[in-house]
Amino acid sequence: MLTVVIIFLFFAILLYFLLGGADFGAGIIELFTSDTNKHRTRATMYQAIGPIWEANHMWLIIAVVILFVGFPDIYSGMCTYLHIPLLAMLMGVIARGTAFAFRNYDAIKGERTQALYNSIFVYSSFLTPLFLGITAGSALSRQIDFDAKDFLTAYVYSWFNWFSITVGLFTVALCGFLAAIYLIGEATDEYDVKRFVKKAKVLNAVAFFCGGLVFLAAETNNIRLAHWIFGNPVSLTAVIAASISLVLLWISIAKGGKQLPRVFAAFQVSMILLSVGYTHYPNFIMGKNGKNLSVLTNHATAGTINTLGTALLIGSLFILPALFYLFYSFREKQGVEDFH
Predict the structure, then answer these.
(1) What are the extents of the domains in the chain?
(2) Are strands 283-286 and 292-294 parallel, antiparallel or unpaired?
(3) Euclidean distance between CA atoms 123 and 117, whole angstroms
(4) Each residue of 59-93: pLDDT tens digit?
(5) Coil, strand or helix: which one is 292?
(6) Number of C-beta neighbours around residue 30 at 10 A
(7) Is there a contact between 207 and 174 (Cβ–Cβ < 8 Å)?
(8) Does residue 231 or residue 168 have the better pLDDT?
(9) What is the pLDDT of residues 42-65, one digit of tens each?
(10) SS3 284
(11) Of 14, 25, 29, 233, which shows the fewest CB atoms inside 10 Å?
């Protein structure tokens, strides 16, 4: 049953990045859109994420619950040594969701309040994945000192380092890239399609640049990132698969594809996560002096894991069909509205 719980944990993290990440990316795209086209971007974005933006955070909640119940040592370790970036990320989630709702449903839509909501939405859309990436990078950077005796060493230097920050920037670029690819499929006007294709190309280049910064920062911080990714056949295969999918993605876009590029983009990001995560499994947090927290050793009692695994299996029978129906029902509703 431990294997079932671990699969659900990593599945929830992956889906949160693919769905929630694209959600954040829509705000990132809006942030870097000219004032002339902002209203067009918002219209397409509302159609794409408006009906289901809250559902995306379900995967984050599931991951947190699994860590809290099934892996309390890992949960407490992250909430202790990485509480600053985690708090910043969660505040960004709250601020972004609030602004998204208020700027659409505010009873008094004055220019000043709309400008405030817009600013909160786009900047929190940037900062949330930034701190999400910083948290992820910190968990693998070996900068967390479980024996720290002072505040800065324990709670600041654990995440405030070049490697974690560059991982955060890389995460922002990936989220924006995912959103651009997803929005290509939502755009109905040829002008908008071309705009989102252009933004996807720019964000693809930015992601490559930020990825290079990650490797450079890894060398600076004595992190053997290149060895982790290229030093074993599984991670290397994942990198090759990601590269091939990127080529197929752009070929599909050149041929006018809208849905297939989404599949390639999601697959590419999944392979990137696999290439990094496989090397460290089963370690979830890698600290200084070889002190790691593993999902295979730092888990709850067998009884708790069995109960949690059973609850996840039963819950998935209700949650997944309901989620698919949510997507389907709003898609059908949009189709009817477009027809009228």
Answers:
(1) 2-220+302-339
(2) antiparallel
(3) 10
(4) 899 999 999 999 999 999 999 999 999 999 999 99
(5) strand
(6) 18
(7) yes
(8) 168
(9) 777 776 665 566 677 888 999 999
(10) strand
(11) 233
275-333 tens-digit pLDDT: 988 888 899 999 998 899 999 999 999 999 999 999 999 998 888 787 777 767 766 55
pLDDT at 192: 87
Distance CA 76, CA 60 (A): 16
3-class state of residue 286 by DSSP? strand
What is the DSSP secondary-structure string of 72-98? HHHHHHHHHHTHHHHHHHHHHHHHHHH
Under 8 Å between Cβ of 96 and 120: yes
> Whose CA is closest to 213, among 252, 257, 174, 162?
162
For residue 294, what is the enclosing H or E element?
strand 292-294
Q: How far apart are CA 42 and CA 121, in angstroms?
A: 11
For the record, the structure tokens of 222 come out as 């004595």
- pLDDT given at position 107: 58
pLDDT confidence band for 334 (50 / 70 / 90): low
Task: Provide the residue type at 28 as one letter.
Answer: I
Residue showing tokens 């089963």: 282
Sequence-ordered list of residues with C-beta below 8 angstroms from that of 98, at least 6 positions apart, any chain: 120
Q: Kindly provide the b/e burial profile for residues 67-106, where b requires at least 16 CB atoms within 10 angstroms of the residue's own CB.
A: bebbbebbbebbeebbebbbebbeebbebbbebbebbeee
Q: Which residues contact 19 (CB under 8 A, 6 or more apart)?
A: 56, 59
Cis peptide before 282 (omega within 30 of 0): yes
Check residue 295 and give its pLDDT.
95
138: tokens are 């910190």
